[in-house]
């Protein structure tokens, strides 16, 4: 990919940008942050980034000393900024989602492939040890044939959360409960059970007066023939840990946040692994840095080894296509067929 210790630019130092900055500081033997946008001088000092150039976002994206850009800006900016960085010859690590529309996400993936540049997307839940163990068992056929997948994200966000940033109240900017909060569990469900072929859905704003939906209910038909249900909301007090359940031809498993809370498979031992990532069901700040630390370790290892990261742009594209398909189904009241994976 380039030097063994890539020079990183961070675009955006909001709450999630500060998470990336803290993680990269911990991994300073593997990467060096040379340029940042956003934040104040006090924030840069707090994060140990005094030596980094403090620049407007567009200058970080094209800076000659930057090898890899971490895009941690509001969701609606992810797509245009990722494209600008790729055109400037930079690899990109994009905080979820890859983009808020499928066409832009597809363009990012195509450009990264054409230019031979890494495109990684943050989906840290795929790296949690219990999820890795379940994925391996499913792929090996040890848990039978998947029949039904369900995920429920019954979270709560108060008015102060939405007042903090305008984009969180905008459906077009990715502020809805499906795109902003539910993405990780929808991504996991598709990762576990394979691509989704068609969706239906309904959405509403039930808890707060804003443009973005705060509650979405979707049905899924997987390419394998399995069916699924997904519910996401930020309107349900006090906020419960997200739950994901898979019924197969031989049993059932349930994951509540990071804990496997149900395991009924004769002759198959329950995975012992449980990650230490905290839940963000009622407080996004409670999630912490552990998941991002694990994913950045993988990304920097991929950079050194010249391999693909665990979560590629193609993975991020499929998730965006799924979410945008659900939104289209909600808007039109019709079933939506999703593109086949390439």
Describe the structure.
With 342 residues, the chain is of the alpha/beta class. The protein has two domains: 134 residues, NAD(P)-binding Rossmann-like Domain (Rossmann fold, 3-Layer(aba) Sandwich), CATH 3.40.50; 170 residues, Dihydrodipicolinate Reductase, domain 2, CATH 3.30.360.10. Helices cover 35% and strands 22% of the residues. It contains eleven helices and 14 strands. It has an eight-stranded mixed beta sheet with strand order 13-12-11-7-10-9-8-14. A six-stranded parallel beta sheet has the order 3-2-1-4-5-6, sandwiched between helices. Strand 4, helix 4 and strand 5 form a beta-alpha-beta unit. It is globular and about 55 Å long. The mean pLDDT is 96.
Layout of secondary structure:
Blueprint: E1 7-11, H1 15-26, E2 32-37, H2 41-46, E3 53-54, H3 57-62, E4 68-71, H4 75-87, E5 91-94, H5 102-115, E6 119-121, H6 129-139, E7 146-154, H7 159-164, H8 177-181, H9 183-193, E8 196-204, E9 215-222, E10 227-233, E11 243-248, E12 252-256, E13 259-264, H10 290-305, H11 313-332, E14 336-337
Parallel strand pairs: 1-2, 1-4, 2-3, 4-5, 5-6, 7-10
Antiparallel strand pairs: 7-11, 8-9, 8-14, 9-10, 11-12, 12-13
Helix pairs in contact: 1-10, 4-5, 5-11, 6-9
């Amino acid at each position: 990919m380039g030097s063994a210790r890539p020079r990183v630019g961070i675009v955006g130092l909001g709450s999630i940008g500060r998470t990336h900055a803290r993680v990269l500081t911990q991994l300073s033997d593997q990467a060096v942050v040379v340029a940042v946008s956003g934040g104040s001088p006090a924030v840069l000092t707090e994060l140990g980034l005094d030596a980094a150039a403090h620049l407007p976002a567009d200058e970080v994206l094209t800076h000659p000393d930057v090898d890899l850009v971490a895009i941690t800006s509001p969701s609606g900016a992810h797509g245009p900024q990722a494209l600008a960085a790729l055109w400037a010859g930079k690899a990109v690590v994009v905080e979820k989602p890859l983009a808020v529309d499928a066409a832009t996400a597809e363009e990012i993936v195509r450009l990264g492939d054409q230019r031979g540049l890494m495109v990684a997307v943050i989906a840290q839940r795929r790296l949690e040890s219990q999820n890795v163990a379940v994925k391996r068992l499913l792929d090996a056929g040890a848990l039978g044939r998947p029949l039904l997948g369900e995920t429920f994200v019954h979270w709560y966000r108060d008015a102060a959360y939405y007042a903090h940033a305008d984009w969180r109240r905008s459906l077009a900017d990715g502020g809805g409960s499906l795109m902003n909060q539910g993405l990780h569990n929808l991504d996991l469900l598709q990762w576990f059970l394979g691509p989704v072929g068609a969706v239906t859905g309904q959405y509403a704003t039930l808890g707060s007066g804003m443009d973005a939906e705060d509650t979405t209910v979707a049905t899924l038909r997987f390419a394998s023939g399995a069916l699924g249900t997904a519910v996401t909301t930020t309107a349900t007090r006090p906020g419960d840990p997200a739950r994901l359940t898979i019924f197969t031809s031989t049993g059932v498993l349930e994951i509540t946040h990071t804990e496997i809370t149900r395991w009924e498979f004769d002759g198959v031992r329950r995975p012992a692994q449980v990650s230490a990532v905290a839940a963000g069901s009622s407080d996004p700040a409670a999630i912490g840095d552990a998941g991002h630390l694990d994913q950045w370790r993988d990304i920097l290892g991929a950079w050194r080894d010249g391999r693909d990261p665990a979560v590629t742009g193609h993975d991020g594209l499929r998730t965006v296509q799924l979410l945008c398909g659900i939104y289209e189904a909600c808007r039109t009241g019709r079933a939506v067929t999703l593109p086949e994976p390439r």
